[in-house]
Amino acid sequence: MIIQSFDPIAAPNAEILVLGSMPGIASLEAGQYYAHPRNAFWPIMGELYGAGPDKPYQVRVETLKVQGVAVWDVLQFCQREGSLDSNIKAEVPNDFSTFFTQYPNIRRIALNGGKAAKSFERFARDHVPRSAQIVPAPSTSPAYAAMRFEQKCALWRAALLGDK
User: Fold this and answer.
1) What is the three-class DSSP state of 51?
2) Which residues are catalytic?
């Protein structure tokens, strides 16, 4: 099955970009990033920015924008059965050249999990501004259960906020 990712969540002032691989089934059905109820993304955003799952989706989106956080996926299209990144085939990347032209203040890029990191290296690395720091982060997917939430949150805090 061919699936398509969403437009980015981004405001002109965006300084941080969170990149996933491709939305899962729950997200695609809801039309929302990280919609699976056990995905740790929004709980982590709640801890870091006050954009937790207790708030309506649009409020979370606007909160991230105000904080200078953009959210997108490395892939624009792919073939995938189910939601697992390991099932992704026939990858078509998003247009990073245009994205970084439209959002020139991106200084930090957090890669949400291993598949996002691999696809990023393959398709997007050459388009990244030289001044931007690229930081791997643990997958927020419920399929990655090897790490406790507190550990994930601490690593995401370091990835997104650095020394702040």
Assistant:
1) coil
2) 39
